[in-house]
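Collaborator request, handled under Task 6.
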Amino acid sequence: MNPTAQPDAALAAPGRVAPAVRFEGVSIGPRRLSFALAPGSFHVLTGAARSGKTSVLDLICAAGRPAAGRVEVFGRDTASLDRKELARFRRRIGRVYADDRLLGHLPALENAALVPRLARRRRRDYLPEVMRILTWVGLGRKMDALPAALSAAERRRLAIAGAVAGQPDIVLADEPTGGLEGDGALRVLRLLAEINGAGTAVLMTTGDEALAAASGAPVIRLGPDRTAVLDGLDPAVAP
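Structure tokens returned to the collaborator:
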């Protein structure tokens, strides 16, 4: 998290909060999405398979540009970022992929430490924090285990640990409970809620409407045609 970051003054207005994420008429398939998400908020993005949920996360990460519309993250138009700015920008975003994206030849500890390691932080500085995070997600006794030796639920929790190890401002979790049932899914949801409770914004995608309701978070629903229903988005966020 970066409390010293200053939002673009043009986004702020008296009594309003500059958004962490803003979509203005962004083309996602047949839809045009417009919404704003406040810093430190928790939202759930729902929709059927291939409705564009992952595409929304890709655009927030600046992994491509919208065919139409404008995406602003941390007060910047993502299309304006040069290569150096893009690297710094992405370090402020933690991502949990639907397919985990763990490196099979590395133990859990090294998988969780990839972001601070790639950011060239000193190992002695980041290792205690990564170990604490692994203990928090319930993998304190499995730090030396390879991903293949972990259950599906444990791999999901390891992916979450890796996403937060870089101390991001936003965590994007793509179907983080996919394939999990009952307590496994609820535990992942609780972890995301705890991340949000510490001040990090969270945007989670899911095709499970019951899980979206269980989160208690505002929901962005991508409809089957040109519709996108925005339920409960924070009115204090600048549009």
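The cover message to the collaborator said: "Residues 1-14, 235-239 have pLDDT under 50 and may be disordered. Strands lie at 21-28, 31-37, 42-47, 70-73, 76-77, 93-96, 170-174, 201-206, 219-222, 228-231. Please let us know whether this matches your experimental observations."
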